[in-house]
Each structure stands twice: as C-alpha cells, then as structure tokens.
Design brief:
Elements (H helix, E strand, L loop, with lengths): L2 E2 L8 E2 L7 E7 L14 H12 L4 E6 L2 H13 L7 E5 L7 H4 L2 E6 L9 E7 L5 H4 L6 H9 L11 E4 L2 E5 L4 E7 L2 E2 L8 E2 L4 E5 H4 L12 H12 L3 E5 L16 E5 L2 E6 L8 H13 L9 E6 L5 E2 L2 E2 L8 E2 L3 E6 L5 H11 L4 E6 L10 H4 L1 E4 L1
C-alpha cells in the first residue's frame, strides 16, 4: 500500500499495551552468524527454550529463512521438547531476527466511549520503514517482513469466520489492513524497540534514538513531528521523552533497555547504583524525568527502580545487558538473566509486578552478544 496521511486514531485505533491479550507472538529463527560471531551454536537452543514457554500460552508465528532453516528449527524444537501444534511456520527471507524493530505494529479499534481495554475491533497493521537502525547495509529483506506479517490471517479470528447482517450477504471478515505511516510526505522509519506504550494514551521514547544526528532515522522529523505521528498512528497523545540509552546499545538509545510500562500507571526503570559506571549518570537523569512526568490524564506515575546487571563484557566489549528487555506474553514474562547477582532482584521485582504470570528466566549471557534480548526478538499480535 502506498504511504498515506490517514490517521488511524481518528477512527478509534490505538496500540495496545504489551500485557493485553495476544493472539500470537512473532519470531524469526536465527541464521545470521554475523550477529553472534563465534557464539552462534547455542543461539537456536535459546530460541527453543523461549518457544517452549510461549507456545504453552499463545500461538507462535515462526519465520524461517529457507527450507534448511525450517528443518533445523523442527529438529532443535523436537530435541528440546519444545515442539507444539501451537507453532506456525512462514518461509520468508530475513536479514536478522529482531522482529521488534523490523516487524509491523498492530493497532486495534476500541468502541466509542469504551475503556481502552474493551470492545476490540478488527486490527490494522502499521508498516513503518526499517533501515537497520540507520547503521547496517543488509536490511532489505527485513524491510519487507512487516508487510508479509500483515497479510497473514489469524486463524482464530478470521479463518472461515463469517459476519452475518440482516439484509446483507454473508462474507468472510477482512484480514488486517496495512498502512504505511508518513510525516511531511515521507515514510517514517520507526523501530518497535524505540517506543513503549501503556495502551491508554502515553508513550515512552528517547531523544538519543529519535532526535540525534547519529544514526538519524528521519532527517525530516522534529520532536513535534514525532509527537503528532505517535498521536495519529498509535493513539498516544502524551509523549514522555527520556534522554540517553545504555552503554553498548548499537541502536543508539532504544527505550526497551531503559524503561517499560508494566501497567497503565506504573513504569519500571533501570538504575545504576555504581557512580563510577558510565550508565549511572544517564539512567539517573532518565529517572528524574520519569519522576516529574505525568500520564495522559495529568496524573503522576508510579516509578519502580530496578538495578542494572553487573557489567557483561565479551572480547573487551561492554554488552547492552539490561533486565528491562523482558517480554510480556499471555501467561508468562520472559526475563533475560546473565548469571549476575542482580538477577535475583530482577526476577523478584517482576514477580511482584506480574503476580498472575509465570516469570521465566532465560539465560542471555550468550544471546546478548547479538546486542539484543527477549523484547528485541519478539513482536506481539493482539487478540
């Protein structure tokens, strides 16, 4: 579909919060050794562990690069006791597996006057441009993934389901419509890891990612343009801008390593107690911004502080290890852990915040060598 100035929010659409019910989680099976140089061998087994837990609670839409990848995925999943009838394969080419950023973002319509979490209507898929974080050259397959995702029907909602109206013929329900967001007549580059929403009108993002001249995604956009786009396309009329991201993050400031909504009025945010650590100052500045921020109704937010893991270093490089990169699924929360003392604090904190979900620790000491974790690799499709 061509770029359009249509505003989904004008028709009651908004981006649901991650903790709202999912129809599925989208994943892409790993194949690019360059993301984990010298450490690729354990990565498929990490995926198998993740899929084993997700498939218990929701459908897993698994993208495989080719027939060989499909065979490997089936073999690994079977050996890891992770195979399930709740897994669907899609044979599409990808460059990398970070679907949080390359995949589409699903928005849904709420009934007029209804609370944000009620009366869901058919979905729309927002296909933002993807250019590999304005850093890498191999992204053209990944830029097509969002459109492919948008065209896949949800079997629980659409397959053979009929809509009957008095005086009208029976017809199959439409699949999600695809919209290419634009600003100033140009398509918008936006990664899912650069934003986080509470589903009620407030969004988190960072100045370092969206407003910096380094790895600049949209030279034609300013702060005002982004805020208008968030309101028009995501239904988020209230933007909370944080400052800088963590050391080692090659996306240049994604918010999903910093601060995450865990309810409509509660944010968990990373802090670094060690004053000599380079993350201390930026995270402290972000905390101050959150403490003075307000939600879409002008109310103060509850801020939960979570200490960063002790540094994870490999081959002399500080890696972007962060407990904030968790993923909220239907019945569980996938939490990255790094065999560091603060793992226990992170798991206990998440257990308190999500008492009705199982907290699943996923060892990510090898996985983080790919510079991403549980949230970066997943993309939810709302129910």
């Amino acid at each position: 579909m061509a770029p359009t100035e249509i505003s989904p929010s004008a028709f009651g659409y908004r981006m649901p919060a991650e903790w709202e019910p999912h129809a599925a989680t989208w994943l892409a099976w790993p194949h690019f050794h360059g993301d984990w140089p010298g450490k690729f061998e354990p990565i498929p087994w990490v995926f198998a562990e993740i899929i084993r837990h997700l498939a218990k609670h929701e459908r897993v839409e698994l993208i495989v690069n080719n027939a060989a990848a499909s065979r490997q995925a089936r073999r690994v999943l079977d050996r890891a006791d992770a195979w399930s009838d709740n897994i669907r394969f899609h044979g599409w080419r990808t460059n990398r597996i970070w679907l949080r950023d390359s995949g589409c973002i699903f928005v849904e319509q709420c009934g007029a006057g209804a609370p944000a979490h009620e009366k869901a209507r058919p979905q729309v898929a927002l296909k933002f441009r993807f250019n590999a974080w304005a850093k890498y050259s191999n992204w053209r397959f990944d830029d097509k993934i969002g459109s492919l995702m948008a065209r896949v029907k949800d079997p629980t909602l659409f397959r053979k389901k009929r809509e009957r109206r008095v005086g009208h013929p029976t017809r199959e329900l439409d699949q999600p419509r695809e919209i290419h967001p634009v600003s100033n007549g140009k398509r918008i580059v936006l990664e899912g890891g650069s934003i986080d929403v509470n589903g009620a009108g407030t969004i988190l993002t960072t100045e370092e990612c969206l407003l910096s001249k380094v790895q600049e995604r949209n030279p034609h956009m300013t702060r005002v343009h982004y805020e208008k786009a968030f309101a028009d396309y995501l239904g988020a009329t209230n933007t909370i801008w944080l400052g800088r991201g963590i050391v080692g993050d090659d996306t240049h400031g994604h918010v999903d390593d910093l601060s995450r909504f865990v309810s409509r009025n509660t944010i968990v945010t990373m802090v670094e107690p060690n004053t000599k650590d380079p993350n201390h100052g930026p995270l402290r500045a972000n905390l101050r911004r959150l403490q003075s921020a307000r939600d879409q109704d002008g109310r103060q937010l509850t801020i939960i502080e979570l200490p960063m893991p002790q540094p994870v270093i490999f081959e002399g490089r500080r890696l972007p290890a962060s407990y904030a990169n968790f993923y909220i699924a239907n019945g569980c929360v996938l939490a990255p852990v790094f065999n560091r003392p603060n793992d226990r604090i992170a798991l206990n904190t998440l257990a308190q915040l999500f008492p009705r979900r199982e907290i699943v620790p996923i060892y990510s000491g090898d996985f983080i060598w790919g510079l991403g974790a549980m949230h970066c690799m997943t993309q939810q499709q709302p129910a």
